[in-house]
């Protein structure tokens, strides 16, 4: 039992660290939400970032907000948890992609690891 407790504690620490580490790197894409598909739990966005392979320096990506992890992946600049229902078209967001983004499709497709809704100035 003691061995299991140590193992479980180590796993929780590692999972917590991976959550924080992803926010220390630049977002994969920053830009504007163009469309929300609540039925499929996804949104379409466009903007510059490491996913932008186009000549104009921007990319369109469908992101799904389904996340099997224990942490909440989406929040506002103040750190408040949000859901897909809180997003609106024309919101400015920063997105860190989870795993691989399928760039072969048009638009590209990926899953949200983290999302921050930026305040409008």
From TrEMBL:
The keyword Signal is annotated on this UniProt entry: yes
Domain of life the protein comes from: Bacteria
Q: Which UniProt keywords apply?
A: Signal
Instruction: Note whether Signal occurs among the keywords.
Output: yes
Listed PROSITE patterns: PROKAR_LIPOPROTEIN
May I ask which residue range the UniProt record assigns to the signal sequence?
A: 1-20
Its recorded name reads Lipoprotein
Organism of origin: Salsuginibacillus halophilus
Taxonomically, what lineage is the organism? Bacteria, Bacillati, Bacillota, Bacilli, Bacillales
């Amino acid at each position: 039992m003691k061995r299991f407790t140590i193992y479980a504690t180590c796993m929780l620490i590692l999972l917590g660290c991976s959550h924080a580490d992803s926010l220390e790197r630049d977002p994969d894409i920053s830009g504007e939400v163009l469309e929300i598909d609540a039925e499929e739990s996804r949104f379409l966005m466009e903007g510059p970032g490491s996913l932008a392979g186009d000549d104009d320096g921007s990319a369109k990506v469908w992101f799904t907000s389904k996340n099997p992890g224990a942490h909440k992946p989406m929040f506002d600049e103040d750190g408040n948890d949000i859901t897909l229902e809180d997003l609106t078209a024309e919101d400015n967001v920063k997105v860190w992609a989870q795993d691989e983004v399928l760039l072969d499709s048009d638009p590209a497709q990926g899953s949200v690891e983290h999302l921050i809704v930026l305040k409008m100035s």
